[in-house]
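User: Here's a structure from my thesis project, written as structure tokens. My advisor, Dr. K., wants to see whether a designed sequence matches the one we expressed. Can you design one independently, without my sequence as a hint?
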């Protein structure tokens, strides 16, 4: 009886296996797979966009903590408006310039105002235009907010709003079109995976232009020309800001793969995430060691900037270099940021948070490292590493110079000494605890 039962069970199993699978069942399974892949990839980019937007409070905290308490409201306000103004102008003009069809001989793009769609093909790797715009606007706001720290303590708030509007609505989208919108740098073969050049060098060199045109803060350089330290008022909040930025960078770099469905995409995302981590850590350690060697004491602020330098340096090449190369890129970035701060002091250029050494110098380093360690075309990488920073520096230097000529750039010495919080905004970050000093 047992044998009969086993035989019947075997026959039933064979019969089930032999049953025909209808075409509509196969199609239904394919639709489910397509919808699942579509949902996962779009959610992946959405989470990445949120992480990059979360970098805005990170920048705000770093810049606020590394500067005087009397300017805290002003710094926070600028970071808030970078995002608000950037979102609106990138929606109206920036996105169309950056990802539209080529015009003016390929100098820039132009598409429709706004986003121009809400749906896409329902397959893995296909992105709704809405989430693509959200991810891109987060990058535009990042480029703008880098400048805030370089010009803090002496720039008029109204002038900053004008700058923020111009960089997010015009300057950043045009060079972004050259590289990411299919423009001439892209056709040349320049590799800038997540924006060492397009985002960070643009912001860093814009900050350099602003710092030069503005001139240094009162009390930054003595009568002998030597730089004097103006300590930040809250290093804990600056350190927390750097930790937030480090976490946000996992949206910046890994999410720039733009998809995670499929083994190839998944492997790429994980390599990018690990390379990002290694470069940040190496940058922090070697900035600390470099400062320790020069000044005989380890400096927290330099270590924090070293972490950011490593993150900027790996951003262009994180998808094409090995783990070991990522460590080396971070080491070089950590050393460069310290030397960059020393260079600015020697040139009597006042950059209160080291925005140019971190984002400008290390942004260029990231572009070159894609050639040195990532095997990208030498001529293309050198060209991109010169043209994009030069575009940002020249255009923003002209803008800041025009504002200076119009008398709408720098606050009065009295306002600067008292602090921009009261002079520009009539409010205090730490009511009842404010100290009126030049330090």
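Assistant: Designed independently from the structure alone:
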């Amino acid at each position: 009886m047992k044998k009969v039962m086993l035989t019947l069970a075997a026959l039933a199993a064979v019969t089930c296996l032999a049953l025909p699978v209808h075409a509509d069942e196969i199609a239904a399974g394919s639709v489910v797979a397509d919808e699942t892949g579509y949902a996962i990839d779009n959610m992946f980019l959405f989470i990445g966009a949120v992480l990059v937007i979360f970098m805005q409070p990170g920048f705000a905290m770093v810049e606020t903590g590394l500067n005087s308490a009397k300017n805290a409201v002003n710094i926070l306000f600028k970071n808030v408006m970078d995002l608000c103004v950037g979102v609106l102008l990138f929606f109206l003009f920036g996105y169309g310039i950056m990802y539209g069809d080529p015009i003016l001989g390929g100098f820039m793009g132009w598409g429709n105002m706004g986003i121009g769609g809400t749906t896409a093909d329902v397959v893995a790797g296909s992105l709704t235009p809405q989430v693509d715009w959200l991810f891109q606007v987060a990058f535009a706001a990042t480029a703008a907010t880098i400048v805030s720290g370089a010009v803090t303590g002496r720039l008029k708030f109204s002038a900053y709003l004008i700058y923020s509007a111009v960089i997010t609505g015009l300057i950043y989208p045009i060079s972004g079109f050259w590289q990411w919108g299919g423009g001439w740098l892209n056709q040349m073969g320049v590799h800038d995976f997540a924006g060492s050049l397009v985002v960070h060098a643009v912001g860093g060199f814009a900050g350099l232009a602003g710092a030069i045109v503005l001139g240094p803060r009162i009390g930054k350089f003595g009568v002998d020309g030597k730089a004097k330290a103006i300590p930040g008022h809250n290093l804990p909040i600056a350190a927390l800001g750097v930790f937030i930025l480090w976490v946000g960078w996992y949206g910046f770099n890994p999410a720039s793969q733009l998809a995670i469905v499929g083994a190839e995409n998944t492997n790429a995302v994980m390599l990018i995430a690990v390379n990002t981590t290694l470069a940040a850590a190496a940058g922090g350690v070697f900035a600390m060691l470099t400062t320790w060697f020069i000044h005989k004491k380890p400096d927290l602020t330099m270590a924090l900037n070293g972490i950011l330098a490593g993150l900027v340096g790996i951003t262009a090449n994180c998808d094409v270099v090995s783990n070991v190369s990522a460590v080396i890129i971070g080491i070089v970035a950590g050393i460069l940021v310290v030397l960059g701060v020393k260079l600015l002091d020697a040139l009597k250029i006042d950059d209160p948070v080291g925005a140019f050494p971190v984002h400008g110098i290390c942004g260029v380093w990231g572009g070159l490292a894609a050639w040195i360690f990532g095997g990208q075309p030498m001529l293309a990488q050198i060209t991109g590493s010169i043209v994009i920073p030069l575009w940002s520096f020249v255009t923003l230097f002209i803008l800041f110079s025009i504002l200076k000529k119009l008398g709408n750039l720098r606050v009065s010495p009295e306002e600067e000494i008292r602090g921009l919080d009261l002079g520009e905004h009539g409010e205090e970050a730490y009511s009842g605890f404010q100290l009126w000093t030049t330090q």
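When you compare it with your expressed construct, this may help: The first helix runs from residue 2 to 18.
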